[in-house]
Amino acid sequence: MRDGSPITHLRHIDVAMPNFAEQRQFYTELWGLTEIAADTGVSFLAAEGSPEQYVVRLRREAHKRTDLIAFGAATAADVDTLAAQLVRQGVQLISEPQPVTTPGGGYAVRFFDNEGRVVEVSADVTPRQHRQIEAREPIPVRLSHVLMNSPTPEATVAWYIKHLRFRLSDTMCVGSRGEVMWFLRCNTFHHSFGIVRGPHAAFHHASFEMRGIDEFMRGTGRMRRLGIERLWGPGRHRAGDNTFSYFLDQAGNTVEYTTELEVLDEDTWHPHLYDLREPANADQWGTANEMDEFIAAKSHNDVDPGLFVAPPI
């Protein structure tokens, strides 16, 4: 474990929804992921440029929920060590470390975070045979990061720092209204995970890295031509220095195309506090549509009925 942290990277985000067929079509035919395995009401979707077996798992369910957030660990021993630490710290395990039966196999532990989200940490997953994304090919290279809404964000950020040893990269605030968004890293990417102040615990957005600016813009244009609801972008954030174009998938979850996420020097980086009242802190380019409370509210998402409830798979 580097600096005591068991987490090496983000693996996948697993979501459930009633309109499974529409979601499956959206992510494969429109968003640019590849289905590598499927069963009745379940679909495993890979990013062509990523060695991860899959980056999104879709599951049919009567009510929309986040099934789990999955991170990687270097070794099975790290998974065992983490599980023992979590138990000592009073974290509720869903399952003891055990073999994984999803594509790629592996060895994993599952547990609830402080607000009831399901987190999985796994090792020894067989890498997927992937490929280099070509120039002008507007499909995701990898899953970049996932952010979650929280009504108690300070406590949730502290939980991930304490128990999983995430490091704080930057924070966003809105003047005297206080801090609203926290970016957390588990490797040298500016963020792989983050927390947003919201009215309830729920999925905020998942972001997918594109090959470069041209591929990012081509993907953005494709979504707009197809009539997919655009929330915000294209633009370029200050925190992370990455590009952004946000859309809504067929279940009302926010998804993002991005590229050029900042890579940090762990030895010299110090977190910043950026005030969103300064427009360049939200969009350095000034090309995105203006963010307002109505647009922001769409990423608050629905109340998640899956808190402190383990998914069936």
From TrEMBL:
It comes from Streptomyces caniferus. InterPro entries: Fosfomycin_Res_Enzymes (IPR051332), Glyas_Bleomycin-R_OHBP_Dase (IPR029068), Glyas_Fos-R_dOase_dom (IPR004360), VOC_core (IPR037523). This is VOC family protein. CDD domains: BphC5-RrK37_N_like. Residues 9-124, 142-260 form the VOC domain. Pfam families: Glyoxalase.
